[in-house]
Design a protein that fits this description.
Rossmann fold, globular, 2 domains
Length: 363
């Protein structure tokens, strides 16, 4: 990649039939030094005409639109001129299968349509939307522009939610627990991983970066195709063999223990590592309450959320895995964990489930 390519801005096309949404997203993204809204379109026909004149790096696409819906446009786009696409969906659409159908057809991420709210809400929306754009861009070029390193908002660590793990973890159970963190590309990576697990596997808790109102539908979709039981985590849910708990969007999830019983705490709090839920929060709590009984897995995703937490897990005696670069949609989170020395073993996605189960049996 040339120096010119490294320093140019990420160019985005917005496709939404709502002028208010187009204007709001333009204002949100225009505040980022490395992102430029190249074009906006009111529907897929308008977008097709504008694509003839200029091709963006990333498309943000609505699903419900007149004349042609977003799913149909996405299929046509991927067959003719594949580009990184982010689905921009409202709360009302979140329960439908359309969002996850779009992911199967090649969309790389989901964001929730921004709406008027408090200053904190709008700021958090800006952080998550702009990071989704950067992650989508990275799926194509495999390297972010240098401007992305200039963060505007403070980046909180897991200290904002939970204190660092103590040096000695008192273990009152020998039951294994598995924790997983993923972001961009994670919806399909998790499907591949979970489909290969036996019905009696150790209890699993997952953080997948996803907006509020989408994780329940995501869990339901996976529950219908995987041998294990999968649900959106609720406060005080018990971690059981054969059960997978997925952190709800916009809420942090911590692993806790009462005697020999593992359970989860679902709580509010600030963005940690620019995310809520945060992988670092889940991993740190696992280091504190499960120690050597835990297995940690970090999968595809942009940024470094989970890297420090995975290192804390390893230091507490847990065994840790990372998805390899070749099978990642974005080799960001695993790469940062490897750089920190937080990973015991790096494996392709297809091999992770078998290796994790073998390790849990050996514990």
């Amino acid at each position: 990649m040339s120096a010119k390519e490294e320093n140019r801005m990420i160019e985005v096309m917005l496709i939404d039939d709502s002028a208010v949404v187009r204007q709001t997203l333009t204002e949100v993204l225009s505040r980022e030094r490395d992102i430029h809204v190249l074009q906006t379109a009111s529907d897929p026909y308008d977008a097709a005409e504008k694509l003839k004149k200029a091709v963006p790096d990333v498309i943000i696409l609505d699903i419900e639109m007149p004349r042609m819906d977003g799913i149909t446009f996405l299929k046509k786009l991927m067959s003719q001129h594949p580009l990184p696409v982010i689905i921009c969906s409202s709360k009302a659409e979140a329960g439908s299968s359309n969002v996850f159908q779009a992911m199967q057809f090649g969309a790389v991420d989901i964001i929730q349509k921004p709406k008027i709210g408090t200053k904190q809400f709008l700021e958090e929306s800006r952080v998550m939307i702009s990071d989704a754009v950067r992650g989508a861009y990275l799926t194509r070029v495999k390297k972010l522009p240098s401007a992305v390193s200039h963060e505007i908002t403070p980046k909180l660590t897991a200290d904002a939610i939970i204190a660092p793990p103590v040096s000695q973890v008192h273990i009152e159970t020998t039951e294994s627990v598995i924790v997983v963190g993923a972001s961009t590309g994670g919806t399909e990576a998790l499907r591949v991983f979970l489909e290969k697990l036996p019905i009696d596997c150790p209890g699993i808790v997952i953080v997948q970066h996803m907006p509020e109102h989408f994780t329940a539908a995501f869990a339901k979709r996976l529950d219908g195709i995987c041998p294990v039981s999968i649900k959106e985590a609720e406060d005080n849910d018990t971690v059981l063999r054969g059960r997978v708990l997925i952190a709800p969007g916009n809420r942090h999830v911590l692993l806790k223990r009462a005697g020999a019983r593992y359970y989860v705490e679902v709580k509010d709090g600030p963005l940690v590592s620019r995310h809520r839920p945060s992988v670092d929060v889940l991993f740190r709590s696992t280091a504190r309450y499960a120690g050597k009984n835990a297995i940690g897995i970090i999968m595809t995703g942009m940024g470094d959320d989970g890297a420090r937490g995975l290192k804390e897990m390893k230091e507490s005696g847990a065994y840790t895995f990372a998805q390899d670069e070749k099978s990642c949609v974005v080799y960001g989170m695993p790469k940062e964990a490897v750089k920190l020395g937080a990973v015991d073993k790096i494996l392709p996605l297809e091999e992770l489930a078998q290796a994790v189960i073998a390790k849990s049996l050996a514990k």
